[in-house]
Design brief:
With 532 residues, the chain is an alpha+beta fold. The chain has 23 helices and 11 strands. The chain is 53% helix and 9% strand. Helix 3 runs antiparallel to helix 4 and helix 20 runs antiparallel to helix 21. The radius of gyration is 28 Å and the shape is elongated. The structure holds S-adenosylmethionine.
Length: 532
């Protein structure tokens, strides 16, 4: 027994977790047999049994096998409910499972024991962390301003999982969807959730298909490994859409509560798991994984060649629309989802799965690659326009234009067409969003602007209608700021910048729609002045 014990300790210290688990399993079985046989050395054996469960828990936790590690912690605590090492180990596991309150209880209990004084820095560090994350997950009071302003230097800020005013219901778009439960303004944080798995790599533009396949394979392996260790997670993944139309009406609508950190039932991890065969897992990942983009690309890779793919289960319940109302930011392994425009209670939250500042034919193509036909109001509106052949001609002109095409001419033709076709209100925003490439080239060139001055609408009017149709977007905000810089919303000249309170308020509202309220006013202001 002594030999086995020193071998197990050595393996654990050498971070050889799998063999150390085997050694502790042997010790546990020997101790249990001797205790059952009423061995006179009972108290010593009990102590050894407790320590072995505790150390096996530590090794299992290091291998991210949290379910079995927690079971070992419970066994150790059944023998000694104030076992310091076990309480700390259990606290760390619960913390990594986002169960901040439960983790806090463990560290508080560890703090009461005699060993706490020798390890006060360690325990106090964990206590502080739990309190901070528990507060964030309860209030959603995140602030990533300093990190963003520092150019994403250093470690990304520590985030907690958080769920705001939302619910899961059956969706008219497809299957289930997420819905706002109260009116919220643009920029309001809706939820923060941590990835089941992410795989990232720096991929130069000319990386071939194989490099993408390697990222995808690593990602699939990571998801399958995580699911293999927890029935609760397998069941959650199993319940995601595989993108097949015939499953639409049979999909269970999960309770939003199961995604709340404190409601997550660790016992569910021990329940019988659904059988997740590789075929189904691949279809599910195909329909539910998202690429990390925008901010995150600047975060980790710090260059444009950076690529990352991940699975965020709660975010996977958001359907696509070409007039989306929420956006996401990737901060470390967390995804932060906020309203990109004002939302009404009961409204379904929708993402842009692909770039919706593109023409109808391109959007159709991108939706096809996701395996669906988008039936959103904007697509229906554009599909039913009587003048589709004219807009199609303009699309071809715009998309095929290799520098030689006068984009001012395309914009003029569209604006003049909309007058003839009687397009009003949001319809204008839909079409301007579809021809955004042409508008942005016009507003981005002094020369073209001068040529078409007064023949096409001012930048501000275009920005307003596009934001109304597709929500805030950094490219649209940029056009607004450039218009102000030129002096006047339309870009008439004379030099300017943001001079008035109204202009500043509007720029802030637009920027908040892009970055969300996790960026505070001072940070948004510097972004705005930087863009100006
Ligand atoms: C990430 S899931 C979205 C949540 C899904 N509705 C559910 O119940 O789990 C993506 C799948 O939802 C469906 N979907 C999402 N947006 C859609 C849309 N605008 N029109 C049709 N189907 C859509 C497609 O089947 C797609 O493969």
């Amino acid at each position: 027994m002594e030999n086995l014990r020193s071998k197990a300790t050595e393996l654990l210290l050498r971070e050889e977790y799998k063999p150390s688990i085997q050694a502790y399993t042997q010790i546990i079985s020997l101790c249990q047999t001797r205790i059952a046989a009423k061995n006179p050395d009972g108290p010593h054996l009990n102590k050894l049994l407790c320590l072995s469960f505790s150390n096996r828990a530590e090794a299992r936790a290091r291998l991210s096998d949290h379910t079995l590690a927690l079971t070992d912690c419970e066994e150790a605590l059944r023998i000694d409910d104030s076992h310091f090492k076990t309480l700390v180990c259990k606290g760390k596991i619960l913390l990594s499972l986002n169960r901040y309150g439960a983790a806090l209880c463990c560290f508080n209990a560890a703090n009461l024991g005699p060993q706490a004084s020798e390890n006060s820095d360690l325990v106090n560090g964990f206590l502080e962390k739990c309190k901070r994350l528990e507060f964030l997950s309860r209030t959603g009071a995140f602030d990533i301003s300093e990190w963003v302003l520092s150019g994403f230097r250093g470690k990304s800020p520590e985030l907690a999982e958080y769920i705001g005013a939302l619910d899961i219901k059956k969706s008219e778009i497809s299957g289930r969807g997420l819905f706002a439960t109260k009116n919220v303004e643009s920029g309001t944080l809706l939820f923060v959730t941590k990835a089941v798995a992410v795989d990232r790599a720096i991929m130069p533009q000319d990386s071939g298909e194989n490099a993408h396949l390697v990222i995808w394979k690593n990602f699939v392996d990571k998801v399958s490994d995580a699911a293999g260790k927890c029935s609760g997670l397998t069941n959650l993944i199993w319940n995601l859409s595989s993108g097949e139309e015939d499953e639409e009406n049979t999909m269970e609508v999960p309770r939003i509560g199961i995604f709340r950190p404190e409601e997550f039932d660790t016992d569910s991890c021990k329940k019988k798991k659904k059988v997740l065969d590789m075929g189904r897992l691949l279809s599910i990942l195909d329909a539910n994984s998202f690429l990390e983009d925008s901010i995150s690309a600047k975060v980790l890779g710090k260059n444009a060649d950076y690529q990352g793919v991940g699975l965020w289960v709660l975010a996977s319940l958001i359907n696509h629309s070409c007039e989306p109302n929420v956006r996401r930011l990737h901060v470390g392994d967390h995804v932060v989802v906020h309203a990109s425009r004002d939302l009404r209670a009961g409204e379904e939250l929708t993402f842009a799965y692909f770039d919706v500042l593109s023409p109808l034919s391109k959007r159709r193509e991108m939706a096809r690659s996701w395996g669906f036909v988008c039936g959103c109001k904007r697509c229906k509106f554009e599909e039913n326009l009587g003048c589709k052949h004219e807009t199609r001609e303009m699309e071809i002109l715009m998309m095929g234009g290799k520098g030689g095409v006068d984009m001012g001419g395309v914009v003029y033709r569209l604006e003049e067409g909309m007058r003839r076709w009687g397009v009003r209100g949001r319809g204008k925003g839909y079409l301007r969003g579809s021809f955004w490439e042409a508008y942005s080239k016009v507003f981005g060139s002094e020369k073209v602007m001068r040529k078409w001055w007064r023949k096409i609408p001012e930048g501000e009017a275009v920005v307003d209608s596009v934001v109304d149709a597709v929500g805030s977007d950094e490219r649209v905000v940029k056009v607004y700021l450039e218009g102000l810089k030129r002096g006047g919303s339309g870009g008439g000249g004379g030099g300017g910048g943001i001079n008035g309170v109204v202009e500043m308020e509007k720029a802030m509202k637009l920027a908040r729609g892009v970055y969300g309220k996790v960026m505070k006013k001072h940070a948004l202001r510097s972004f705005i002045h930087f863009g100006e």
